[in-house]
Amino acid sequence: MAFGILTSKSKECFNAGMTKTQAIKKLGGTPTLAAAAIGITTQAVSQWPETLTPAIEDRVIAALARRAKKAQRKGVAA
Fold first, then answer.
1. What pTM was estimated for this model as a whole?
2. What digits encode the pLDDT tens for the residues 5-44?
3. Largest CA distance in the chain
4. What is the DSSP string of 20-35?
5. Whole-number Å distance between alpha carbons of 58 and 14
6. Which of 6, 20, 47, 49 is the residue whose CA sits 20 to 30 A from 74?
7. Which 8-state DSSP code applies to residue 27?
């Protein structure tokens, strides 16, 4: 099941709209790390609305899932 690899903190994203601040925090804590995690520029992150659109939120969740899956393969907590 694909959702099995998401952490409980990542699942919180499904309950309500994710904010820009939450996304940046979950993706590493800085706009630079957040941008790198989803393959965009830091400038693009700076243009995100405070409440993320569903498309941006999906990219954040996908990046979190990839990180969790990679950590799971290595036997490390995400």
1. 0.73
2. 555 555 555 556 999 999 999 999 999 999 999 999 999 9
3. 35
4. HHHHHHHTTSSHHHHH
5. 10
6. 20
7. T
- Alpha-carbon gap, residue 63 to 39, rounded angstroms: 9
Query: Residue 24 corresponds to which tokens in the numbers above?
Result: 């940046």
CA 40 from chain centre, in angstroms, equals 13
- Name the phi and psi angles at 51, rounded to 5: -100, 120
H/E run at residue 63: helix 54-74
Q: How would residue 71 be classed by pLDDT, with cut points 50, 70 and 90?
A: confident
Measured between alpha carbons, how far is 60 from 3 in angstroms, rounded to an integer?
14
Q: Judge whether residue 4 has pLDDT over 80.
A: no
